[in-house]
Amino acid sequence: MVRHLFSLFACLALISGFGSNEVGGPSVAAAESSGYVSEGKRDPFRPLSMMRAAKPDPVKPQTPLQRYELGQLTLVGIISRIDPPRAMVEDSAGLGFILTPGTPIGRNGGVVTDIRERGVVVEEWHTDIIGERHRKEILMVLASDESEFQP
After folding, report:
1. In which band, very low, low, confident or very high, does the pLDDT at 38 lie, cut at 50, 70 and 90?
2. Residue 43 CA, distance from chain mean position
3. Residue 104 in 3-state DSSP?
4. 46-79: per-residue pLDDT in tens?
5. 86 has a pLDDT exceeding 70
6. Which end of the chain is more exposed for a tag (fewer CB within 10 A), N or C?
7. CB 123 within 8 A of CB 111
8. SS3 for 109?
9. Please, what CATH class does the domain formed by 64-149 belong to?
10. So where are the chain's domains?
11. What is the DSSP annotation of 82-96?
């Protein structure tokens, strides 16, 4: 009997205090006046995988050079004393390709930005897990000079 009375009083207390601000915690007005603005900020309780924007379409290869990863190509020659300078890369089958500044290369949307005396600079843009884009410069060195540049 005492248990039933206790549970009855507990239920009445919950029902009567359901609408008041004191029992239920701070009101919405108090939360709005706290000064914190959540617009433009990510929800710390939401996984990053749910926040990702739609993935951009991968770069569709338009040239044969865009079908290869940069690691699959070997720099075999550079002609730097002409304008514009040129370089030659080979794939594993020995098929050669001519590079000039501005040539698209690689599967990640890379572009040849500079041809130097002993190497070619390729610029790629990568999107990280949060969606920010980062620039990455890759230096391809001549096959005969690779041993000099190894750490």
Report:
1. confident
2. 19
3. strand
4. 777 666 655 555 556 688 899 999 999 999 999 9
5. yes
6. C
7. yes
8. coil
9. mainly beta
10. 2-51, 64-149
11. SSS-EEEEE-TT--E
